[in-house]
């Protein structure tokens, strides 16, 4: 049976988004596309129902979830009878509903989307390598595509007028893109061991540290719900 947990108590931000959402995702530690939505909710103080499926349970669960999402992919979020799919549009939707976590001008919104999409491209390459099971491909990734994205994000964060003062993509205002960038560095295990994997990338390190220092995120990372 999948595990189910009610996280938090409903807040004013739950009212803004229209209630308490239900998340369907893998029981895959604190990683993946579903986790970035969870950490966004944690930061925003949004209560949610968390349903986690083991990889052994997933094939059977997928059959029943096809009625919810015809392509059979998760995360799936249920909220007031609506079915929300695709993690990054989910993040953008909640950011708009909250009136936070995004730019306020078209130029800022464009830049946030750009930085998010760079991190999405990185995650896609990482997942392909991870799922291959090939140690050779993993080594090539570490010194190839992963390095490319680290260098690219570092350069963008240092040079763009919105980003260079930091610590976030839009300076002192956190956005959904900061969580997307954070989550891929976490899943690549670059945030472990005092972030030694980010050595040589000081601006990106500054962003990661700032995300982890946010009170609700910090409490999550130190609590029982954080699974590594």
Q: Low-confidence runs (pLDDT<50, min 5 residues)?
A: none
**Assembly form of the protein:** single chain
Q: What's the N-to-C terminus distance?
A: 22 Å
Strand fraction? 5-15%
SSE order: EHEHEHEEHHHHHHHH
What is the average per-residue confidence, as pLDDT, rounded to a whole number?
93
Number of helices: 11
Radius of gyration equals 17 Å
Percent helix among the residues?
40-55%
* Structural class computed from helices and strand pairing: alpha+beta
| Number of DSSP E strands | 5
Could you give the order of strands across the largest sheet? Answer: 1-3-2-4-5
State the shape: globular
Main sheet: strands, sense, barrel? 5 strands, mixed
Characterise the protein shown here.
- By secondary structure, the protein is α+β, with helices and mostly antiparallel strands.
- Helices cover 55% and strands 11% of the residues.
- The chain contains 11 helices and 5 strands.
- It has helices at 12-17, 33-44, 58-65, 87-98, 106-132, 135-143, 145-159, 176-187, 192-195, 202-213, 215-222, and strands at residues 3-7, 22-26, 48-53, 76-79, 82-85.
- The chain has a 5-stranded mixed β-sheet, covered by helices on one side.
- β2 (22-26), α2 (33-44) and β3 form a beta-alpha-beta unit.
- The relative contact order is 0.13.
